Amino acid sequence: MVCIFEKESTTIIFDMTGSSGGLTFAYAISKNFREDQCISYGDSGNLSNEFVHSMDKDSRKKILFCYGHNVHHFNELTDNKCHRITMIRNPANVCISYFIYCSDYNGIYFHPTGEPPPPQGDIEGTLKWMERIMDGARSNGPQPNYAAKYILSLFGDTFRSDDELFEKALRRLKNDYALVGITELFEESQFLLNALFPWINVKIWKRVRVNKTPWDELDVDPALLARCADFNPVDTELYTIMRQRLEDEIPSITASDVYLDHKAKCISNDTKMVRHLLVGSKTYLPPMTPEIYFDLCTRTSANLISRITAEDNEMIYKKRMDIYLDRIAELEDKIMYLASST
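Below the sequence we write its predicted structure tokens.
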């Protein structure tokens, strides 16, 4: 990162795109401010647009962090220096996560084509339901290219071509945002955020899950993932470009002990990330040398061991002891393999 912003009279505006882990990122940022310095509004916030517009000028000036869907215009309501950030996710995963969301909440917000979703937890049924909707006309299901349309506030616009949508969304992402984070590279995005805004402590966060049913793309047919990507061609291209840009900015970060300790801790706290690490998946990892990858596996194993042996955590993890022991054994096997191949 080449730019570090000053804290004085600075408001960070977080434009959240759908199903992208935005609430977790927002939680991490909000913990660096007082409650009265943060607001959440727009399509998903706890305040109405009317309320925010009715706030007096001095009240809006006190707001240092604003987040939600479609909150682009907050910079027009304050005299503070405003810097936009956003987070985008692999669009195939966004697509699947959205349909699981509909299933988890019984289609409270959306019944594509009028067909009720499968029961909560029926992953297989939900994926088949999703395929049936994608088989129909685009307008019958959720609008494709969620991220581009959130960035441009273009929901319901049926006259824009994919090429024009891509060009305008990419231009805005490159020119109007101080940071475009990547959901799959969550920790790396946090560290880049800290490079831009040094007063943001990246280590304070907890995962906020909206979906009730856990799932993993490793369990999804690759052909279906490819189809979901094809259903979102603009977002797929935007994601590829912005992920590459982020990866190009972080080599100096990923070699540091502070980053590796934080990444290892986060991986050890997440069953899905441990699984991806074990099978060599790069989904949640930036490019790194074999030596750094070996180091990360070693630190992750040490984190898992410390969670089991710590007295304070003994009762918490007792029921999951076998799972953690299996993880450690698999990681140690991987570490031995990596050590023998270097």
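Residues 137-141 have pLDDT under 50 and may be disordered.
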